[in-house]
UniProtKB/TrEMBL annotation:
PROSITE patterns: KS3_1 (PS00606), KS3_2 (PS52004)
Any single Pfam family the record assigns to this protein: Ketoacyl-synt_C
Name listed for the protein in its UniProt record: 3-oxoacyl-[acyl-carrier-protein] synthase 2
UniProt record similarity statement: Belongs to the thiolase-like superfamily. Beta-ketoacyl-ACP synthases family.
SMART domains: PKS_KS (SM00825)
Length: 416
């Protein structure tokens, strides 16, 4: 398709279930106040684990969105995804009916899907035998169920898929949804990421890989992106969902518009299972290609919501990538990691971070990076330490990188 044939795509609805708030308003206020959602794990007894902290979602009641039978037949990751999707749809005031259902789709990414159900059913299998395993185990466990169940609960009959690209999954879902609307395959898409992997087995696996912080006595200070004293990431859970809509469709129904999505790129390091390529080449290309896709010159970028995991490898390589992609302008933009407050939602991170990026544009305010006490000398950009900052934002980027070498950059723009 020629550029003149591509549709403009805007954001008309947002939903968020996060460690710092279970509504869009509470999540945004939490970010603006520098609130940390990291605390000692309560889902299970973590005393045997080297890492005993996480960004758990607090006070979430699935029955606010689902009846009891439906909720019981869903893993927590799917409950989060459906809940945030229903929030975003309500926020957009888009009504799905028989006339438009086939033009509205869903793509929700996840890193590991229903791992809690898998762990629980394995325990039942070992202790009580195979006949006692739940007939709902498989549909509760598989990663596509957040997308499938969201369609069931909203009536969206258009394109439906699930991205499973580790920590880039939520951003890939948003980018793929953007392409479908941009090219006319859908009028609107519910998209984002969801995760509920704070479980004993997941925690043990990441800890064995020495990826997690062990700052158990200071949980709120444990996630510290770009700080030289960082010692690993902190797991989180939740969901972030965007309602993307073709511009003319949104204008015809008088929709509220938060911003416009204008660029998307994905690349692969093709280097290592878990480590990013040291020079940040793959991430650099993702940023450059997203800018090219959106017709954006580097000096137009005002803000980057960084992947910023609080790990030794990511923070330095992402900083290198930003500098290579944006040149000297990298030193004149604001960069922040909201993972410093929420922890790392794995496949859900791209969703809540895209929500944060769009809200930053809509409110002309940058979320901070908390816990940045002693910046790593190799991390020498403006990471907006501790306090949110007012800034007139025209273009903002959101970065997500995942195990396997997946790199994704999304580019958002103020709607004019």
């Amino acid at each position: 398709m020629t550029n003149s044939q591509l549709k403009r795509v805007v954001v008309t609805g947002l939903g968020a279930i996060t460690p710092i708030g279970n509504t869009l308003t509470d999540y945004w206020q939490g970010l603006m106040s520098g609130k940390s959602g990291i605390a000692e794990i309560t889902h299970f007894d973590p005393s045997k684990h080297t890492c005993q902290i996480a960004g758990e979602v607090k006070g979430f009641d699935p029955h606010n969105y689902l009846d009891r039978k439906e909720a019981k037949r869903m893993d927590r990751f799917a409950q989060f995804g459906v809940a945030a999707s229903l929030q975003a749809l309500a926020d957009s005031k888009l009504v799905i009916n028989d006339l438009n259902a086939e033009q509205i789709g869903v793509i929700i990414g996840t890193g590991v899907g229903g791992i809690k159900v898998l762990e629980d059913q394995q325990e039942i299998y070992l202790n009580r035998g195979p006949s006692r395993c739940s007939p709902f185990m498989i549909p509760m466990m598989i990663g596509n169920m957040a997308s499938g169940l969201t369609a069931i609960h909203t009536g969206a009959k258009g394109p439906n898929s699930c991205t499973v690209t580790a920590c880039a999954a939520g951003s890939n879902a948003i980018g793929d949804a953007f392409r479908l609307v941009q090219r006319g395959y859908a009028k609107a898409m519910i998209c984002g990421g969801t995760e509920a992997a704070v479980t004993p087995l997941s925690l043990a696996g990441f800890a064995s890989a020495r990826a997690l912080s062990t700052r158990n006595e200071q949980p709120q200070q444990a996630s510290r992106p770009f700080d030289k004293d960082r010692d690993g990431f902190v797991m989180g859970e939740g969901s972030g969902i965007l309602l993307l809509e073709e511009l003319d469709h949104a204008l015809e129904r008088g929709a509220k518009i938060y911003g416009e999505i204008v660029g998307y790129a994905m690349t692969c390091d093709a280097y290592h299972m878990t480590a990013p390529v040291p020079d940040g080449a793959g991430a650099t290309r993702a940023i450059e290609l997203a800018l090219k896709d959106g017709g954006i010159s580097p000096e137009k970028v005002s803000y980057i919501n960084a992947h910023g995991t609080s790990t030794a490898a990511n923070d330095v390589t992402e900083t290198k990538a930003i500098k290579k992609a944006l040149g000297d302008h990298a030193y004149r933009i604001a960069v922040s990691s909201t993972k410093s407050m929420t922890g790392h939602l794995l496949g859900g991170s791209g969703g809540i971070e895209a929500v944060a990026t769009v809200m930053a544009i809509a409110n002309d305010r940058i979320p901070p990076t908390v816990n940045l006490d002693n910046p790593d000398p190799e991390c020498d950009l403006d990471y907006v330490p501790y306090e949110s900052r007012p800034l007139d934002i025209d273009i903002a980027l959101s970065n997500s990188f995942g195990f396997g070498g997946h790199n994704v950059t999304l580019a958002f723009k103020k709607y004019r």
